[in-house]
Amino acid sequence: MADVCVLAAPRSWAYLFAVGICAILIGAFLFLEPALTIRLLLYSLGIIAVVVAVLFLAGAAFFSRGGGPAFPVLLVIGILVLALGILAFLKPDLVGGFLAVIAAALLIVGGLGMAVTGLFQGTASAGRVLSVVGGSLLAILGFLFLFHATFTASFVVRLVGVFLMGSGVVSLAGSLIRWWRQRSDGPGWIDAELVEH
Questions:
Q1: CA atoms of 63 and 60, how far apart (whole Å)
Q2: Burial of 54 (0-12, 13-18, 19+ CB in 10 A)
Q3: Domain count within the chain
């Protein structure tokens, strides 16, 4: 039996350059237009909810022939998800507020759970400190979402934008280094003569 080793080919400098440019542009958009970004995300959520609702309603129509217990469950879930999707288009601020409360609850519970787990963890002190600090920061972010949803959402979107711009700059630097190395290497071919004996 032969062993096969498949190695991933390194990405070209052009790929890294394109990824870097895209990351910088998207990051700049997120940083400069957080409100528009949030609205576009809510509209995207509405589109996804409508598609999921259509799938649930199609499943309800399929199971309605058998008369099983899945029909009413799928029908009710489909109608509720369809209402959420339509509401995301008509009243995006209402849906955004609802999602902010859910996100706040998840962040508070998850953050406090992480902090308490970090306190009673039996591992090294660095891991405990990171768990307690990270959990506390998540809980604080959750409370900010709960009481100042618009400001916190804009702040988080801007942070994501800064992260994307930073990763884009790193990708651009990597592409330039890779380009320089490929340019300074010798030719990618060997000049040889074929001699027959």
A1: 5
A2: middle
A3: 1
